[in-house]
Input
Amino acid sequence: MTFLEMRIIGRHHDFQRKVSVSTPLRLAALLGLVSLGLPVVGHAQGSGPKWYDRVSFNGDFRLRGEGFFQRDEPNRVRLRIRLRAGVTIAISDHFTTGFRMATGAPGAVTSANLTLGNGFVGESFTLDRAYLTWRPSRRFEATAGKFGMPFHRPAALLGSELAYDDEVPPEGLRQQLVVLERLEGLVRKLTLSADQWILRESRSGDDTWMLGGQALMELVPSTHTRLDLAGAFMNWAQIRPMATLANSNKELVISNSVVTKSRAILEGGSPLTPSTSDPFAEFANDFRIATLNAGLTVDSVGGRPLVSYVDLVRNTALGSNNSGIWVGASWGQVRRQGDWAIGAAWTRLEREAVLSMFSYSDLGLGGTNVQGPIFQFTWRPVRELTLQAKHHIVQSVLPVPGFSGTLHRLQLDGRVSF
Output
């Protein structure tokens, strides 16, 4: 690809059109090299590091077999793929930029999966990450652009996705400050962060923002244990009109209550489908979300690390149907060839606790008003290949039409990292 071709693509490219697997890697690399001000071929002689020493590629491919099994409902089995490819570039000692492309249905926010079986048509790539990070010192950094989910949640094999799905890529600004850091004592580290995410920019009305932040404290109660405590608050300003996105985007899961154009109120609890004659007008409620979590890690129990945690969420804008909990534990870790680990969790997420359009997409059919246990086993037979089995057993919190009994959602994954 010539530089002229890249410029043409930069003007006219639609990241949701069909592209080849090699295109995102090549495009991301070329964009990164241009941002460095370096030629694609050759490098001026000097004492500094070569350009290729400052560029790192990353990505993974996942093949998933998934089944849905529920009483009085037909069984469903499907095959899905996910491919992510990115590049990170150290521009200087203080600036880093990154780009990543990922598969995903146009309009999807919580999943980069593609379901196979659509007449052999070509699949789509979307821009999943594009950000710039400024790190003037070891204690402070600021990031702008489209980046990965930044909020701390307890680290475990089966980590919490109570408030947000792991694959949600926020857009906007973030700042992080390490207030305290030391090698001895009970409190080892204290980190504060502030987030300003832009969900909708409107030319004629108010913009929709998430303004929030988090405090994270890392403690070492004893030589072989670590305790993480974190609390966050997220205020979604002008969030109610965002329900209208579902009128034109079928990939968004809306299970929060909404108000239609005729001012009728549709009670949520299961995924809602907007009517063409009476579409969604707004969410019925505001969202001012507070989270609190704690995670305890024991270095070795039976020769393997043991992690237990609890994660809580509450929508402070409401007085009922507004809370959630996720508790879990894992034994073992998966870092090297031959490693294996097991994990289990139980979660309950009430109807208005969080924004359903960003919540964990694999729990039931996605959205809120769900509860139940999750079990997971992970094994790495070779260094780049990870195999995993995950079983969700889901019921609704409040009874809803069309959701009878218990839904079993089983996932069998093979993931290759590169």
About this structure: Helices lie at 3-12, 22-35. The longest strand covers residues 55-70. Residues 1-45 have pLDDT under 50 and may be disordered.
